[in-house]
User: What shape does this take?
Amino acid sequence: MTRPPNPTAPSRALHVITWGCQMNVYDSARMGDVLRPLGYQPVDTPDTADMIILNTCHIRDRAAEKVFSELGRLRLIKEARKAEGQQTIIAVAGCVAQAEGQEILTRAPYVDIVLGPQTYHRLPEMVARAARAGNSIIETDFPAEQKFDFLPEAEAPQTPGNYTAFLTIQEGCDKFCSFCVVPYTRGAESSRSVQSVMAEAQRMAKSGVQEISLLGQNVNAYHGEGPDGEVWDLTRLAYALAEIPGLSRIRYTTSHPRDMNDALIAAHRDLPQLMPFLHLPVQSGSDRILRAMNRGHTADEYRELVQRLRAARPDLALSSDFIVGHPGETDEDFEATMQLVRDVGFALAYSFKYSQRPGTPAAGAPLQVPEDVKDARLQALQKLLREQQDAFNASMVGKTVPVLFTSKGRKPGQIAGRSPWLQPVHVIGPDHLIGQELPVRITERLTNSLGGILEEERVYA
Assistant: This one.
């Protein structure tokens, strides 16, 4: 006898606050997918939410204190709704949850659920347990099962205008850089199966997504099981994704220099869907500091890798990460970083002062650099990096580049999109061009974007 379908779960409001990297953005969306069968639907503000998830990041300085500050605000919302007879579940997810664990429940006992990045596939069970037991739940173990094997199919974007999307294919890190908490908060390197990645990418493309950014802590270390039973690397996966109809742009981040192999470099030459923009963190230009960081490469090896990439794809632009003031960094070490920046030239870069992360090798290292020295070095580095970014953007003026238009611009009559090098581009044009990739002649460099005109008048028709 066929059992009748279960009645539709009651509608509940879910608000997710996301901090940190693109992977957290992806994880937040997947948490929404996991909770949807329970009747949770997204809302824009926490004030009316039946469940609030704070998806946290541990990379920035004072990350934990920022979480506790935000939790204080959410506590007031929870108490106000309780006075009106409404329940609010507060959950803390992500890397701070993984790192702080019990400390969150000790300092903020009104939090109902604390869960690490590898356990959000268990959210429905956690919600049920929290409601039934009336006490807090903590799930920060690294489960034996792969969470992606237990997640529901990702919801394809349902609203017009979702022409770009993030897609996590790899998580965790085995590199153990001295300054980094990722191996402790995200666990060992693991990769999704090719079948899982391809199925999600196909759903995205069918919904209108034209550009996919593949995500991973070490995305170019991808080693997923293929449908043929073999282990596929990122290169083979990229070629398969390029066969999906409608998918015209592929990006990937974040890469490690140690995992850039000949095949992947050749793919930048041969695969037109692979965008000519690569985020390749180097962190320092000093071999002595690179050894202290446990990066596993030298400054000259990084330079040589860049030369090979640019030989394969001459229009390739690079982005990178830099840390100044790592323990033991001298003026000579910092100058070596400045010289590497001058030698390589970056279109974009992210630079930070070293900050101690409890449990990492560098946190207890001797010769911590004074804050005023770190400040001065960071300002000097950022000035040079900004000059290079401005010069790269200025070099686009007069060129015609393909722009994927994704939204309206800030000004009336404007539409906005991205160049192959991730630069925001604004033109005057009708809204019906949003969702198309069109040639644009760049006419001006603005502070953080480019301005241009549509190359073909026919697109106005």
Remarks:
- Confidence is low (pLDDT under 50) at residues 1-7.
- The longest helix spans residues 371-394.
- The chain has three domains: 12-139, 147-395, 397-454.
- The radius of gyration is 23 Å.
